[in-house]
């Protein structure tokens, strides 16, 4: 291999398969060398982490190849859609750091699609069917057996035209009539067996009001919208593979022999994100919200982008995660631990280190002068050589973690136990002298003596001591509520588990969810103490509570009642639990 070839092939390797396709198309001069993509959410819920994978692909490809990615709301189903969702989707895309070229709506094309449907009826390529959806389904046949033609299939064009007008004028009840494309009831591709392309919906549309009563189906709207807009690469997930021939056929029909050059959108599919212990799909998330199983779309236990944001995930950590998992053409179940490790990696570089005690017990330094207060220096982020510092007050009475003291400790316990020295972070080395207990034997105070020559920065501070503990000063700290989150589901693959439960018990999605939900996914600690520095911390501040984990102030937090969310613990405890 020549040197040139070696470089070329290693570059090829690092491209994902969609990038390889785009580069090939560009080389071949398809679409005049243009790259245009779109992100096409249906505004029927909030975006989730699966959408982030699609967003990074759609916007990423356009950015990389000097093209544009438009945002197109796929709003063809007025019963489920709402402007609230439109707004949240825009906010979430921008939070991920992307900006669309144009904001489009499938509903912008209702007139064009209507005209196209009329043309198809006139050309004998579509007809109004008056059968029920059950009858139509029963005639579909199976992949190995041809379907049965509808008795309405060969009705006169004039009749179909007239009925189609009536469908849209509100004269036909929902479910009584549909418009079907006349393709091939014996096709091995089930999507070609005279697919339904229009149905009646009487709910007003969030943008077009009651102008329309006949609405195009997804398959009749998506490819044509791509074509109208000049999309070149229509990227979607694998479940649309069987739809692709129909996508291409409708694009052929709508092009009407125009544009004989190669200008046309093409659909490419990649694998959906499926994550362990996470249930995606807006339909499912809507049930959780509506039934009150969580506290809204942005509940920090939700896999929505607003949920992750509220929980303290950075957009960069989501990008890191998407880079790690990549894009393939087969379904997989990714480990949630991978997402968490991306978050830790990113927050390690970003988070301000602070002290917080979540399960406090009082430590009294019996030889420290009463009333004395020292201001200790704490580095905001030791990962950053130019990090700023802040001060934390130190005094005779401190809060430490209950788990950091043991009266009768085993050998390898390097924390506080009588006779043993530990370092108090950013302060002194102290030696434990004992504790006081209540009648039930619970430790209520721990005692120690500090060594005044060991303040951080002094020569004797380097004395070898095995444990370092965090603390806050009792008279100089703030009380806070801390919310600890655990996985929302008890089962590793909630998507498949839900399907299995529903099949076995013939029950609703909600009932299946109730069986799978983890009743202990939220643990609220009311009596925590944090250093004063956090008095004016705000949501989206990235914090590390030293030795505990990453945290962020919740939107419920006020100066009088601080509330923090745990983003992720410092170490991966989940995979340890699941390995047991
Ligand atoms: P949901 O089932 O969650 O409602 P959807 O596919 O109906 O998802 P849309 O709003 O229709 O959601 O999809 C917008 C885009 O996001 C589509 O291109 C879709 O393929 C993609 N998408 C949806 N879920 C995932 C996922 N889990 N992983 C990757 N891409 C996804
Ligand atoms: Mg959908």
Automatic annotation (TrEMBL):
> Which parts of the sequence belong to the tRNA synthetases class I (E and Q) anti-codon binding domain?
468-553
- Catalyses which reaction? tRNA(Gln) + L-glutamine + ATP = L-glutaminyl-tRNA(Gln) + AMP + diphosphate
UniProt-listed Enzyme Commission number(s): 6.1.1.18
PROSITE patterns from the xrefs?
AA_TRNA_LIGASE_I (PS00178)
Q: Where is the Glutamyl/glutaminyl-tRNA synthetase class Ib anti-codon binding domain?
A: 351-451
Keyword flag Cell membrane: no
Q: Name one GO molecular function term.
A: ligase activity
Q: Which PANTHER family match?
A: GLUTAMATE--TRNA LIGASE, GLUTAMINE-TRNA LIGASE
Into which family does the record put it?
Belongs to the class-I aminoacyl-tRNA synthetase family.
Report the protein name in the record: Glutamine--tRNA ligase
Name the species this protein comes from. Phocaeicola intestinalis
Highest lineage ranks of the organism? Bacteria, Pseudomonadati, Bacteroidota, Bacteroidia, Bacteroidales
């Amino acid at each position: 291999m020549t040197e040139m070839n070696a470089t070329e092939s290693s570059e090829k390797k690092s491209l994902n398969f969609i990038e390889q396709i785009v580069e090939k198309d560009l080389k071949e001069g398809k679409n005049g060398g243009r790259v245009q993509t779109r992100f096409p959410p249906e505004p029927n819920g909030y975006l989730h982490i699966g959408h982030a994978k699609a967003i990074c692909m759609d916007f990423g490809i356009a950015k990389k190849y000097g093209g544009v990615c438009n945002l197109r709301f796929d709003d063809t189903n007025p019963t489920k859609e709402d402007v609230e969702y439109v707004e949240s989707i825009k906010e979430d895309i921008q939070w991920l750091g992307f900006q669309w070229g144009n904001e489009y709506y499938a509903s912008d094309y209702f007139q064009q699609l209507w005209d196209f449907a009329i043309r198809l009826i006139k050309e004998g390529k579509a007809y109004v069917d008056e059968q029920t959806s059950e009858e139509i389904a029963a005639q579909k046949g199976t992949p190995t057996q041809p379907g049965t033609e509808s008795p309405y299939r060969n009705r006169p064009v004039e009749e179909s035209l007239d009925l189609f007008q009536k469908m849209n004028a509100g004269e036909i009840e929902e479910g009584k009539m549909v418009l079907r494309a006349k393709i091939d009831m014996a096709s091995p591709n089930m999507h070609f067996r005279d697919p339904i392309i229009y149905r009646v919906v009487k709910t007003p549309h969030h943008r077009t009001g009651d102008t329309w009563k006949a609405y195009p189906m997804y398959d009749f709207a998506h490819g044509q919208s791509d074509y109208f807009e000049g999309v070149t690469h229509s990227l979607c997930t694998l479940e649309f593979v069987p739809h692709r021939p129909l996508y291409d056929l409708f694009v052929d029909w709508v092009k009407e022999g125009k544009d004989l050059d190669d200008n046309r959108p093409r659909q490419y599919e990649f694998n959906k994100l499926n994550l362990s212990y996470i249930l995606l799909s807006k339909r499912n998330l809507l049930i959780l919200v509506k039934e009150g199983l969580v506290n809204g779309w942005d509940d920090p236990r939700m896999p929505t982008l607003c949920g992750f944001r509220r929980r303290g995930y950075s957009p960069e950590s989501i990008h890191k995660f998407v880079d790690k998992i990549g894009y393939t053409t087969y379904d997989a179940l990714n480990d949630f631990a991978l997402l968490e490790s991306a978050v830790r990696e990113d927050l390690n570089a970003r988070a301000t280190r602070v002290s917080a005690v979540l399960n406090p017990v009082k430590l009294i330094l019996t030889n420290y002068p009463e009333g004395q207060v020292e201001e200790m220096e704490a580095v905001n982020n030791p990962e950053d050589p130019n990090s700023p510092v802040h001060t934390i007050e130190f005094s005779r009475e401190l809060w430490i973690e209950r788990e950091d003291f043991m009266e009768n400790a085993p050998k390898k316990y390097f924390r506080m136990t009588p006779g043993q020295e530990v370092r108090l972070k950013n302060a002194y080395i102290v030696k434990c002298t004992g504790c006081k207990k209540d009648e039930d034997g619970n430790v209520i105070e721990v005692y120690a003596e500090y060594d005044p020559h060991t303040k951080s920065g002094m020569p004797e501070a380097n004395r070898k001591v095995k444990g370092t503990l965090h603390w806050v000063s009792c008279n100089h700290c703030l009380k806070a509520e801390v919310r600890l989150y655990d996985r929302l589901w008890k089962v590793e693959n909630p998507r498949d588990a839900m399907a299995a439960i529903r099949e076995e018990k013939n029950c609703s999605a909600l009932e299946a969810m109730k069986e799978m939900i983890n009743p202990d996914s939220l643990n609220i600690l009311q009596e925590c103490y944090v250093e004063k520095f956090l008095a004016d911390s705000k949501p989206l501040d990235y914090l590390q509570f030293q030795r505990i984990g990453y945290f962020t102030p919740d939107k419920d937090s006020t100066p009088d009642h601080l509330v923090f969310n745990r983003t992720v613990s410092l170490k991966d405890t989940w995979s340890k639990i699941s390995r047991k």
